[in-house]
Amino acid sequence: MSKTQYLTAAAAIALLAAGTLWWRTQSETPPPVIATNSAETLALAEITMPESLSDNARIGAQIFANSCAACHGENAVGIDGVGPPLVHRIYEPSHHGDESFQIAVAQGVRAHHWRFGNMAPVAGLTRGDVAMVIAYIRELQRANGIN
To answer: pTM here?
Structure first.
């Protein structure tokens, strides 16, 4: 049984209050997102959760919740006006390989697909931590047909 999850406005506000926002609005035109089907959500994508996660992905989900969700949303669905969804065709492995996530966390990244602006480095995460986050993101992506 699959579960569809949305970030509610209250959850988004809590995430926004919980962490530093690294994304700023730029002038680039973003590509279309997967879906948004409710005016009361700030999520940029509708996703189907996998039936289960591997051990590494479960660890990655916790790290993601603590270090990434403030900008990229619960379960990487993005937050309107804050940060992009990572469960999106732009981040498929053939376009943004695993090392691009490592570099983005370690060094930050210049905005190039979205209007959210540049991403600052994320302090306190090791390459191993990021590898677990990548496992989580890739499993979410596969559950949503992004290979």
So the answer is: 0.72
